[in-house]
Specification:
The complex is a heterodimer of chains A (about 200) and B (about 280). With about 200 residues, chain A is mainly α. Chain A has one domain (about 1-200). In chain A, about 85% of the residues lie in helices and about 0% in strands. Chain A has seven helices and no strands. Chain A starts with a helix and ends with a helix. Helix content of chain B is about 35%, strand content about 25%. Chain B has ten helices and twelve strands. In chain B, the strands form three sheets. Chain B has a six-stranded mixed beta sheet, with helices on both faces. Chain B has a four-stranded antiparallel beta sheet with strand order 2-1-4-5, with helices on one face. In chain B, strands 9-10 form a two-stranded antiparallel sheet. In chain B, α3 runs parallel beside α5 (about 160-175) and α5 (about 160-175) runs parallel beside α6 (about 190-205). The longest helix of chain B is centred in the last third of the chain and has 17 residues, at about 190-205. Chain B is globular and about 50 Å long. Classes of the chains: A mainly alpha (about 200), B alpha/beta (about 280). Chains A and B meet through α3 of A and α2, β6 and α3 of B.
């Protein structure tokens, strides 16, 4: 998560630095990085990383529990698997995705700062004031609100696919792949619709 | 020991009386897609008795246990468990009936991230309001019953196959169920270990008055459970002995063949049957 955020910010600084040079606007590099990291790249990249790491893990874990009949055993012992296994995971995803997004945003802007300082020769003061100027409070809201939805999507897909596993060890592998693919695609789709909704509400 | 009585769960108390049918299947049919699993299966199990389902792999035996627990729903027919129509119940209602049932799954189905003690006490920790101290006592008691008291803090992966199966039995009995279902409890175990598992089943039935439903294709184990009994001697030790004629008649055998009930009767009927399929199965 940290590495993804850091290098995304860094490469963004490199690329946008080149483009901005054409307009003689290199000092504005901070604006571009903060706007794109906080509004879009931070939430989406964090969610995609979580889909690969957490979504697959959940699908594999619950999938193995299904094929070894542990889920049936849970129900036979009078426990609702949704309450015991799904609800805590969804809550964890709901809470942790925004927190990880904030971490990723911060590290991304730090990555951009290092590139701006060392490669683009933009001073720290100019960079950070551009970072702040580039942001509206609505952008920050959007960057914080979106991950709540994305966290729920990733974990729900992981649980859903995992609990519907059939066909032994092979089935667990299939579920894991399906969970990552479905969660990644849904992250992008949900991101689009939530962004559209938030734009109409916030702006 | 149970946190709530039968009556508090809304279950008819009279079912705890001896010889009332605990399980009743009436013309139960089930198929998955085009494959017929069960066809017009009808039988009943009385309190304190033993029902043993025999049949080849894939004949539909394990499915019957899953129907009893409400893990599957039949396509048609009625299923009564402890006086409740489980085929009509939703998951929340089923939980109350399952409170009085235990099941030993084919490969144990122990929770592999929990220790043996946590597995055994799971239901008491999670689903009852019993104080922790009492739960620990009960866990020690049932693990002692299956002879695994020393393994309470181990993870299931550190146990042998036979030990895992005995932990599964301990977990199923911990909350003192009135009905215990065993799905191939001895399959894949060596003959000596299988006998210890069989002995646990007999002990539970005779000393704790648990109604038992067994699914197996191990004839030796089926006959052992049907023809043996357990009691506590004057010194308080548990001893196994050959069951009386009357006791043997309390164990019914039921052969499932291609989803149908192909035979129903006692151990002696099974041994003397002239049916070629049964003879082939017994030989």
């Amino acid at each position: 998560m940290l590495l993804t955020g850091f290098f995304t910010g860094a490469v963004l600084a490199l690329q946008s630095g080149m483009t901005l040079d054409q307009f003689g606007a290199r000092p504005f590099v901070g604006r571009l990085i903060s706007a794109s990291m906080i509004k879009e790249l931070g939430p989406v990249l964090t969610a995609l990383m979580l889909a690969g790491r957490v979504g697959s893990g959940i699908a594999a874990e619950l999938g193995s529990m299904v094929v070894t009949e542990q889920i049936s055993a849970l129900r036979a012992l009078g426990t609702d698997p949704i309450r015991k296994l799904v609800v805590p995971r969804v809550l964890a995803g709901f809470i942790m995705c925004p927190i990880l997004t904030v971490v990723s945003d911060t590290v991304g802007m730090l990555g951009g700062w290092i590139v701006a300082l060392t490669q683009l020769r933009v001073s720290s003061g100019v960079y950070w004031s551009a970072v702040v100027e580039g942001l509206f409070i609505q952008d920050v809201y959007m960057g914080i609100i979106k991950p709540f939805f994305l966290g729920i999507v990733i974990v729900t897909i992981g649980c859903h696919v995992g609990l519907r596993t059939s066909g032994g060890t092979q089935g667990v592998g299939r579920s894991t792949t399906n969970a990552v693919v479905a969660a990644s695609v849904l992250v992008l789709i949900v991101d689009f619709f939530v962004t559209r909704l938030l734009i109409s509400i916030l702006f | 020991m149970r946190a709530k009585s039968l009556a508090e769960f809304g279950l008819p108390v009279e079912l705890a009386e001896a010889h009332a049918p605990v399980v009743l299947f009436d013309k139960v049919n089930l198929s998955f897609d085009d494959k017929v699993i069960l066809r017009d299966v009808t039988f009943s199990v009385r309190a304190g008795h033993t029902k043993i389902f025999l049949g080849a792999s894939g004949a539909g035996k394990s499915t019957i246990l899953k129907l009893m627990l409400g893990l599957l729903k039949p396509d048609s027919g009625t299923i009564w468990i402890l006086g409740h129509r489980v085929d009509l119940m939703d998951e929340a209602q089923l939980m109350r009936v399952r409170h009085h049932m235990g099941m030993v799954f084919q490969d144990g189905a122990l929770f592999d991230s929990f220790t043996v003690g946590e597995n055994v006490g799971y239901k008491l920790y999670e689903e009852t309001i019993l104080p922790l101290e009492e739960v620990r006592q009960r866990v020690d008691e049932v693990l002692g019953f299956v002879g695994l008291a020393a393994h309470v803090d181990k993870l299931p992966s550190a146990l042998s196959g036979g030990q895992r199966r005995r932990v599964a039995i301990a977990r199923a009995m911990a909350a003192r169920p009135t009905l215990l279902l065993y799905d191939e409890a001895t399959t894949g175990l060596d003959p000596m270990t299988a006998l210890t598992v069989d002995a646990e089943i007999v002990k539970l039935r005779d000393l704790e008055q648990v109604t038992s439903v067994l699914v197996t294709h191990q004839l030796r184990d089926a006959f052992y459970v049907a023809t043996h009994a357990a009691r506590r001697n004057a010194a308080g030790q548990i001893e196994m002995f050959e069951a009386s004629e009357q006791k043997i008649e309390e164990a019914d055998f039921l052969m499932i063949r291609e989803g149908r009930v192909a035979f129903e009767g006692h151990a002696s009927d099974l041994r003397t049957s002239k049916d070629p399929y049964l003879k082939a199965f017994l030989s």
